[in-house]
Specification:
This protein is about 55% helix and about 15% strand. It is rod-shaped.
């Protein structure tokens, strides 16, 4: 059963119970008030009859010392005739509560008569011959006799009015329930509209449309639920897009890896087959062996880089305070033998919080890429600067540059802007991918600025660590600037 149907059904049940109880209470309250009024009138009528009987008995000629039964019957008959228009019936009983006179149709039992005494009046409601009556009883003192006078007052109209009231109220209740059902159907339809919109959006997402969102149509709890659902859907769509991108990246990685393996393996297999299948002169043998050696070294470098990427991605770095100058000095010493390029180094002394070996790997890869992108004799600038956010490393070259549309792709594994130039220099497109993984461990990233023909500037920021101080002045990352050195 739908939620709107449950809401409608529960509302109708509550309305039916409420209307039924309130109607019963109202009609019954009116009935009891009318019945009490009729009972009061019947008791008053009984008192009047008693007074009339006593008056009539006093006016009877005194022939006897005691009022005779015949006289009682005569007086009672006169009282009955005087009340025939009102539908009243009476009964008179003697001292032993034996009937002396009774109106036609007065056939009730003696239960009420047994309750009457000299000081007690009583009444009750009875059903007799298809009618409802109020039976009253009291004592009459006439000429030293104690008689008992009972009356029957027809109150069927009160019961008929109650039955009519219940019948009319049932009709009104039925009409109210029909009208209430129509109104509640509309209300439940409006109240459950956000739920239907959420259900529709959920089904669309289940069908694969992760961009589907539910429309907010209220500001209550269901409106807040809609906002939370849309927020959840946005996060889910973002995660799914990330997963799809990762899957695509893995597929591209596998494809690029297979392609990069194919070229050196083809050369290795071809030259090895030529060496084993035919006899070559010394020059061709050396050339073939050189090709095999060169391509083998490229495969070795590629495997080492891939291993470093996987270890970096799944490993944990051991951070410590490192003097930035020491990192630059290590890199400077490593590239001192490269006489085809001119290097300039400029760094500010400061302590950085990092894994020194990993940061050295980043700097070496950036310098290696700068050398590959530059013509012999070009200047490559390496600098370090203290900033408010941390310590900024920067490597700038004046080489071929990178087109704008390629900037977002160059950090992917095996991606090379100029594949022929990269392969000539034993490149595999893994250096920047490795740098990206290392900087992720340091909560940092590469910032690349480049333009074709103008060179490239790649920088990254190592966030400062609270308490890391310069070993001389103890002022965080701030320190004095070292002089430039050119090679």
């Amino acid at each position: 059963m739908k939620f709107s149907s449950k809401l409608l059904l529960c509302t109708m049940i509550v309305m039916a119970i409420a209307l039924g109880l309130s109607g019963f209470y109202f009609v019954n309250s009116v009935f009891e008030t009318s019945l009490e009024r009729e009972a009061g009138q019947a008791l008053d009528e009984n008192s009047i009859l008693c007074f009339a009987f006593e008056t009539a008995a006093l006016n009877v000629p005194a022939k006897y010392d005691v009022l005779q039964d015949s006289t009682v019957e005569q007086v009672a008959s006169n009282l009955e005739r005087s009340g025939q228009s009102t539908g009243r019936m009476i009964r008179l009983s003697d001292e032993e509560k034996q009937p002396l006179f009774a109106s036609d149709g007065f056939e009730t039992d003696d239960e009420l008569l047994a309750q009457i005494d000299a000081v007690t009046r009583a009444y009750r409601t009875i059903y007799l011959n298809g009618h409802y009556y109020i039976q009253t009883g009291s004592t009459v003192n006439a000429l030293d006799r104690v008689l008992y006078l009972e009356t029957l007052r027809d109150v069927s109209v009160v019961f008929d009015e109650r039955a009519l009231g219940f019948r009319v109220y049932r009709q009104i209740t039925l009409a109210m329930l029909v009208l209430g059902m129509a109104i509640m159907h509309l209300i439940s339809f409006l109240l459950t509209r956000p739920i239907r919109l959420l259900t529709r959006a959920t089904r669309q997402m289940a069908a694969g449309d992760y961009s589907s969102r539910a429309r907010k149509v209220s500001n209550d709890e269901l409106g807040q639920l809609t906002l939370d659902f849309n927020h959840m859907a946005g996060a889910l769509e973002e995660n799914i897009n990330k997963l799809e991108d990762e899957i695509q990246a893995k597929e591209d990685f596998v494809g690029a890896f297979a392609h990069e393996l194919k070229t050196p393996l083809t050369a290795i297999i071809g030259y090895a087959d030529m060496l084993r299948s035919r006899k070559l002169d010394e020059e061709k043998s050396l050339l073939s062996a050189n090709y095999i050696y060169t391509e083998g070294k490229r495969l070795e470098a590629m495997s080492i880089r891939l291993l470093e990427i996987m270890v970096t991605r799944h490993g944990q770095a051991h951070f410590q305070e490192v003097q930035a100058q020491a990192l630059f000095q290590y890199v400077q010493d490593m590239f001192r033998t490269n006489e085809s390029m001119r290097f300039t180094y400029s760094c500010e002394r400061a302590l950085v919080w990092a894994e020194s070996n990993l940061i050295i790997t980043v700097l070496i890869n950036l310098l290696d890429n700068a050398c590959k992108a530059s013509e012999p004799g070009s200047v490559i600038e390496v600098s370090g600067q203290v900033c408010e956010e941390g310590y900024l490393f920067r490597v700038r070259d004046h080489g071929i540059g990178i087109p704008k549309e390629e900037l977002e792709k160059i950090t992917k594994a095996f991606y090379m802007v100029d594949k022929s130039r990269a392969r000539e220099q034993s490149g595999a497109g893994l250096g920047l991918a490795l740098c990206t993984e290392i900087l992720n461990l340091h909560h940092s990233s590469l910032s690349i600025e480049s333009a074709p023909g103008e060179g490239t500037c790649i920088s990254f920021m190592l966030p400062g660590r609270d308490g890391a101080a310069d070993e001389k002045n103890g002022s965080g990352l701030s320190a004095h600037r070292e002089g430039s050195e050119e090679e």
